[in-house]
Every structure is written in structure tokens, then in C-alpha cells.
């Protein structure tokens, strides 16, 4: 805190914005409407208002607890199985209603992390519930005993979802069911993926989140479309993993876990395992069903096999070894360090510490200055949009817009115009690299 | 060869060496700095009995008190419980009595019990006399074995004995209830379900367990 006595703070309040701002702030690098995480203004501040997406989530969430909601749909299916399918569950997997819909499979096998969600057994299970509900309501041929007794059905439908052929019964009687199938196909196509298989009956999973973590960072996440992960919950998971590394090394761990933002009134069950011998990469599979361990254990094997086939684990190791972006590589002369947070995705980029911040005492001081600038900007009584902080050891420009929050550190002698020009350049760089720096696409099932 | 799938749970106070025993069973080296288990970790091991291979799905549970409430999640439908204490800690031995009571109260299935006195290498700090532990094991019909995960003694013997007991339990359930095994892969819990369905009550007919013998 040596800097505090001699530092001067000059701030621009709302009215005094630098002229170039509007153009740049519209850039908002790392922006995404389809975020893997819920967007929040601050990790710690849970009382802040959320953006529209979050509000929607909360309406859903408060309507009923997420876990009980998921559990309810399970128990309902358990107690009132659709005739015909009931008999098949224990005896013969082949008898399970298994609709294979052939689409033009333009699968992107090169996309490493996409592949985790491409597994047909993985992504498609969610929707059968809907199908069953429709079946329940329906009076048509689906409830016909003779139709149900057939071991294998073949349905052909057009890309638009019109029934073309059914092995048993008339296509016309299957309009509703095929409509549901078409809806499923469309849902998946929305996510720029293609459906290959819908699995019904006993083989469906109750997975809610699948998360891969390396070096205290989220590598990728697949989630149920309906549920998002709150940064606070992710923070808990990251802490659990990083503080218990050696406990999870022994093999596969199975443990209940409460994610308070997801549902504070219940537990999810977590299958936790490391994917490599060096224990760099950890995978968590979260479900609502406590009996799902062996299913998830199988699932882990499949995911691991895929990741190995496409050499993803090596790629993760390389990324960790590189350790984030270096300011010196960006080529902005006066810039020493920065932290950039994309608000819509709740993700941030923090530059690697370079001289003079390679010494612990130095970066600790830097962070206490960041803390002070952050605190000043977010003061509830008089929040600021821009703060130009001149200290003895460094100058920090803090800038908050609706899309991002940026703290950039310069040498103490930098002038305001130079700092602003540098920040402008930095934003352009982040924008250019945004696919690499942020997880912009959200994988759902 | 016939394969019998069974579920086994490891229970006991914290720091008695449950994870170290499992690591030895998996063929790993002894590690002085094993971290406390969180929830439970899973390990599959196979014991070859000659006429039958017993596949044990072992749940190594967390011993820390704060995880105690989770235990029922792991011992539900278990076929064997391995109760581990530390021979240098009398309280860890006393704790096993409450585990036995809890299992008796909550597990309806016939169950193979095994008492493991770990840290046998620390003889000079012994607090639990072998005879007392042996008598307790006898009173609950459990396999008894003193082990040292550090020196890797007694671990394989104990799991072999548990596997033998599980296979005997399976055979006696099948025989006494006149059930016929189908196929080469048998799951203990399917056998138990079969027995329950067959008899229409919740207390399957079980052979009297052999008295434990000190190894």
C-alpha cells in the first residue's frame, strides 16, 4: 500500500467519456448470447441483477427446485412406464424403442471438444421424456397393443418431419410421434450438430452437466439445455478439484455434491476422475440419480477414448504449459498487464505475469491496486464507468461497459491518450483472438 | 470360468488405512501421504478361486466424520463389508461396533463381514489386542485378519477370504432356495433378488456362516 499516499485518482464519471469509446465498446470481445455459464456481474456478488438470460433461468429455477424437477420426471417415468417399454427394460435391450434417424452427417470430427458431445449415447437422451409424454396423451396407434408388441420399428421421415414410411401401422397414424422426432432433430441442428440416434428406455442417462477442468480452468462443458451452471457453482467445483487433487487420483470418485445456485435444497451426484496419469485434466459428470455410477463410469471410458483418439489431452497439456497469453506477444509497448472480463459469458482473461510482476511481492501489490480500482468503480453510491488511476509503481485504466470489464496496467508515466489508444488496440487484439480466449459456444443436450 | 459380481464396501474411522489397503490391492506402492478420501472412490478387483472368479466392486469410503452421513449411499445393497481399524488406535476399533450396528439395522441382504486390523507393522504402539479383536470378529461371524498396508502383508489373504465367503454365500443361497444359476456371469444382487422373489419375504434362507478362523 506504499502507493496510496502519493497516488492521485482522476476519474471520468458518466458524462465525461473519451470520444473514441462508443466505437470500441461496441466491439465487446468475447461476447456470446449462448454462454456456457450464466452471466453475472461479479463472481462474488450474488445479489446483483442478472441479465435477461439469467432472469429467465431464475424464473424456471424458482418455479421448482432443479433437482426435484429432474427427480420428478424420473420418478414419474419410473412409476408409470409406457406399456410395452416396461416389459423390455429388464429383458432385452434390443426391444427398447430405438429410433434411428439418418440425417446428412456432416460431423466435424476435427473439432476436438465438439466430439465429446457428438457421442450418440451422450447428447440425445434428454428428449425421450417428451416423446413419452406425447405418447401418453395420444389415442392413436402408439397405444395399440399389437403395434407395441413389434420388436423392431423402422420409421422414415422427411427432413421437414413428414412421415414417409413406417414398418408397422399407417404413417398417418404416427404424425404426432414423428413430429416430436422432427422437433428433436431440429433442436440438435440448432446447435449445429446432427442427430444420429435417439435412445429410449433403460439406456437413457440422467446426466445434467459434464465438465472438464484443467489447471483450475474450465476446458469444456456439456449441459442439459434447460439448466445452466452459475459461476459460483463452477467456482465451488474448481475449488473442490484443485484442493483435492490427490484424493481424486486413486481412481473414480463418487460423491454427492450440492451446487447451491443450481439447487440449494438437494444434491447432485458427481463422478470425478482424472483423464491422464499426470492428473492434469479432470472430468466431472453430474447427475441427479444416485444409482448412475456405473453408467457414468462407462460414459467416462467413452469420452476418454475419444479424447485420446483426437489427441485432446496432449493439446490440453500444451495449453497449460504455455500458461495463458503474454502481454509482450500482443505488441503494445506501454502495456504491462491486463484483466479482461466478458460479462455475457462470465469469463475472464488474465495476462501472464511478466516483469516486474514475476516477483510475488510485486504482483500481490498489483492485485491490491486492482482491488482498489475495482472497488472504486463499483461503489454503489457513485459507480464509475472509467477510472484512470496513477500510482507510484504503475498506472491502471479501469473501464466498465455493459459488455465487458477491463483493467489494464501501464508504466506510471503513461498519459491518458496513450493509455486509451493502447486499450483500444488491446480490445482489437482480444476480439481477434476471442475464439481462443473464451468458450463462446455452449454445448447442450 | 464362472464369474460372480459382488459389491463390497470398506468402512472405518479416518486414517486407519482403508485407501492404503486398496492401493496395495491394486498393486501400487505404499504412499505415506495418501489424502483423505472424499465421498468414496471406486475400485474393481478380481479374485480367482479356481472354479470361479469373484469380481468385487469395492467402494472405499471416506472415513472422516463429516462424510459419515453419506455412508448409506455406499453400503446400500452391498454383499460384503470390510471393517477396518488401526491396531494402534483403540477408539478406531470401538467405532467398528457402531458400524456393525448400523449395517445390521440398514442392510437386509445377507452380508459377508470382514474385520481388518491395519498397521500391523506398528506392533510397539499396539492398543488393540489381537485376541480381543478376534473374539469380536467371531461374535459377529466376520473374517478376521491383521494387515499392514506398509509392508503389504495380509491384504491379499483377507480379500481372498472375503471372495471365498461371497462365493459360498452365493452357492448356499442358490442351493437352499433351489434356484438354478443361468449363464456364466452371476450378479450377487440378482441372486438375492431371485431369492426374495422366490420366497416372497424379505429374509432369505441363509446357511449358517462358518466360524471365523485366525489366519
TrEMBL record, chain A:
Lineage: superkingdom: Eukaryota
Segments forming domain FUZ/MON1/HPS1 third Longin: 334-434
Region annotated Disordered, chain positions: 1-28, 66-91
Coiled coil (UniProt feature): none
One Pfam family, short name: Fuz_longin_3
Low complexity: bias regions: 1-15
Residue ranges of domain FUZ/MON1/HPS1 second Longin in the record: 206-304
Family from the record: Belongs to the MON1/SAND family.
Job of this protein: Plays an important role in membrane trafficking through the secretory apparatus.
Name of the protein: Vacuolar fusion protein MON1 homolog
Lineage, top ranks: Eukaryota, Metazoa, Ecdysozoa, Scalidophora, Priapulida
Gene encoding the protein: LOC106817848
From TrEMBL, chain B:
Keywords associated with the record: Nucleotide-binding
Source taxon at top rank: Eukaryota
Pfam hit, one: Ras
Family: Belongs to the small GTPase superfamily. Rab family.
NCBIfam families membership: small_GTP
Name by which UniProt lists this protein: Ras-related protein Rab-31-like isoform X1
